[in-house]
Design brief:
mainly beta; five-stranded antiparallel sheet; 49 strands; 643 residues
């Protein structure tokens, strides 16, 4: 390079000036950074880098906005560009807070249309009740909203005035990985009630709780509590078409009343809750010698149409009991303990005798019933099961007595064929025996006696041990014996229904059932896990032996498509599949349609069915269709919802 083009060295004074200016600029920059950290922490700054950042390591991607000044320990751990012993160069994976998962919700009305500006709230789930509110938000223009899921199981509720309420719906954290959860706004009604004290003055400031007894696997049936105002009045919103019960408590007392029937949408129902105590029944429960008993007491109101409300109490060790009432009337009072004849008195409460607390209930010992079981020749039979039954149907008071007296005696005859039972005094009872040991089907009814009774004879004849017997073989579709299975008896009801109970087993392709009672109309259903059940019958049972050959077949399937009137798929519509003609005791398949409006039922027994589809609300419509299922085939059916 020519000398004229070589750079000239800086003068010593210029070098010093540049160094001074650099130091000043650096100091100003450091001061400005410190002021920013002190006055506006976390704003406009880069995430804090862990120790070792000077070596080119990337900061942890944890979303932190902390400045380096907030981590002096991490800076002090750096020695010669490397972390000291015991100091991590980067945050461990388990120290990085995982982002809170979000669950997307789609809020729709009864017709499945998205609802904008609907209020959505998350609550803790405490048992079956709503806990603290954790989050509150609103849906966007297309009815969607995303909420943080901070626990494995929570409650979510959506509401929009004039449209409806979803009720409290249970959601799980695992659902955050799937499609948006649909919240359907159902029609509502209102309950307005008054809580009264014993003296019928309004009870202010009390919590009122409501609960629906209508089964709902998705929604929590307990309503959020509300509080009475100065006039003892409360008001709350409920889901229409469901029955509810409301109650309040104070000083250990619970209100009576509060039953709310199924309400139509938009209806306002008035209800009164009153604390009992204006009327009362009390007294002492004793044995026959006058000693106090700790037992059970039942009070039943008499009404013109028959037995009314039944209230219970437990007597203390001193025999004392008390039952508070809201209103007077005529009552049956029954008390006692198991193994003793119950006491019964009639009580009348009115304005003059509003409280009767000097009543005495005195029980009596059981009485003895003895006898023997013999055959036709008069020889005694040991090991025969004998029980005591009611000779006539018990009335309402008799049923209360049975609650405290316990189950009537039963047992087997001893070696000499005799039996001895203790039963309630004065009870008219009938002796019943099982003539074939181990067989619960055949029964022999003996004489009717009134306790006490002795030397009662119950005779079992040879014909009493005979009945209807079913035997045969069971094979799979290829003709091979079925290793294991069950035999169920189907009893046909007069109204068209049926009931079923197991009466035998299939073992290595063979079965034998009976003897069964005669004079009945029954069918038999043979069941095994791998194949569809086979039903044979009906039979009129007589004393005979019936031989059956049973061949099992594969299950079928049903694919149901549900559409709205305009032809679009009906999503999240409830569909059920049941026997046709309808059998209330028959099996049923049910579920919800998917995003295509389709639902498939597996392992369906080959026969005819009726399909019912129903939208979440009446406004969404309902529909039905018929389908016949063939073994091993897929049957398809289309259903259109009609409003």
């Amino acid at each position: 390079m020519p000398p004229s083009q070589q750079p000239r060295p800086l003068l010593p004074g210029v070098k010093q000036l540049i160094i001074v200016l650099a130091v000043v600029v650096a100091g100003v920059f450091i001061w400005w950074q410190g002021a920013t950290v002190d006055l506006m922490p976390g704003l406009g700054q880069e995430p804090a880098r862990a120790a070792g950042a000077d070596t080119g390591d990337e900061p942890p991607d944890d979303g932190s906005t902390s400045s380096p000044a907030e981590s002096p320990a991490a800076r002090e751990a750096v020695v010669d560009g490397a972390p000291a012993d015991g100091a991590a160069g980067a945050r461990p994976a388990d120290d990085i807070a995982a982002p809170t998962p979000e669950l997307a919700f789609l809020v729709v009305d009864g017709e499945g249309e998205p609802v904008d500006r609907a209020e959505v709230e998350l609550h803790e789930l405490r048992g079956r009740k709503r806990g603290l509110q954790l989050w509150l938000g609103a849906t966007d223009a297309i009815g969607r909203v995303a909420a943080p899921i901070q626990a494995d199981e929570l409650l979510v509720a959506a509401r929009k005035p004039g449209v409806g309420w979803s009720g409290d719906v249970k959601v799980r954290r695992a659902a955050a990985r799937g499609e948006p959860q649909r919240l359907v706004l159902l029609a509502t009604a209102r309950v307005r009630g008054t809580v009264l004290r014993i003296d019928e003055r309004p009870a202010a400031g009390l919590l009122v709780r409501g609960r629906s007894s209508t089964f709902d696997a998705e929604r929590v049936t307990t309503l959020p509590p509300c509080t009475t105002n100065a006039e003892g009045v409360f008001e709350c919103e409920v889901l229409a078409g469901r029955d509810y019960t409301f109650s309040a408590t104070h000083d250990g007392r619970w209100t009576r009343g509060g039953e709310v029937p199924e309400l139509a949408p938009g209806v306002v129902h008035e209800v009164t809750l009153q604390f009992p105590g204006a009327f009362a029944v009390g007294g002492v429960l004793r044995d026959s010698t006058g000693q106090p008993l700790a037992g059970k007491v039942w009070l039943m109101r008499r009404e013109a149409k028959g037995p009314g409300q039944i209230l219970g109490a437990t007597s203390s060790d001193t025999g004392r009991f008390n039952i508070d009432l809201v209103a007077g009337g005529t009552f049956d009072l029954v008390g006692g303990v198991e193994g003793r004849t119950a006491a019964h008195v009639t009580v009348v409460l009115d304005e003059i005798r509003a409280r009767q607390d000097g009543l005495e209930l005195r029980t009596r010992p059981f009485e003895s019933v003895t006898g023997r079981v013999v055959d036709e020749s008069g020889s005694t039979l040991a090991g025969i099961f004998v029980g005591v039954g009611f000779a006539t149907k018990r009335d309402a008071v008799g049923r209360l007595r049975s609650r405290v007296e316990g189950i009537l005696a039963r047992g087997e005859t001893v070696a000499d064929g005799t039996f001895e039972f203790e039963v309630p005094a004065g009870l008219s009872c009938q002796l019943v025996a099982r003539p074939v040991p181990g067989n619960r089907e055949l029964l022999v009814r003996g004489p009717v006696v009134t306790a006490p009774a002795s030397d009662v004879v119950l005779t079992i004849r040879a014909a009493d041990r005979s009945g209807f017997v079913v035997v045969g073989s069971a094979v799979d579709p290829d003709g091979r014996p079925v290793a294991r299975g069950e035999v169920h008896r189907v009893e046909h009801e007069a109204g068209g229904g049926s009931s079923m109970d197991r009466v035998g087993r299939i073992v290595d392709g063979r079965f034998e059932v009976g003897p069964l009672a005669t004079g009945q109309r029954v069918s038999f259903e043979f069941q095994t896990r791998a194949f569809a059940p086979v039903r044979v019958g009906p039979f009129e049972t007589t004393v005979r032996r019936e031989t059956l050959d049973v061949r099992f077949q594969p299950y079928g399937k049903v694919r149901c498509r549900v559409q709205r009137p305009d032809g679009t798929p009906a999503v999240k519509v409830f569909v059920s599949l049941g026997f046709e003609p309808y059998d209330p005791f028959g099996p049923a398949w049910q579920g919800e349609t998917d995003a295509r409006g389709v639902i498939e039922f597996q392992r369906v027994i080959p026969r005819s069915y009726r399909v019912h589809a129903r939208a979440p609300t009446a406004a969404g419509g309902k529909g039905s269709g018929d389908v016949h299922v063939v073994s091993g085939k897929v049957a398809e059916v289309d259903v259109v919802l009609v409003r």
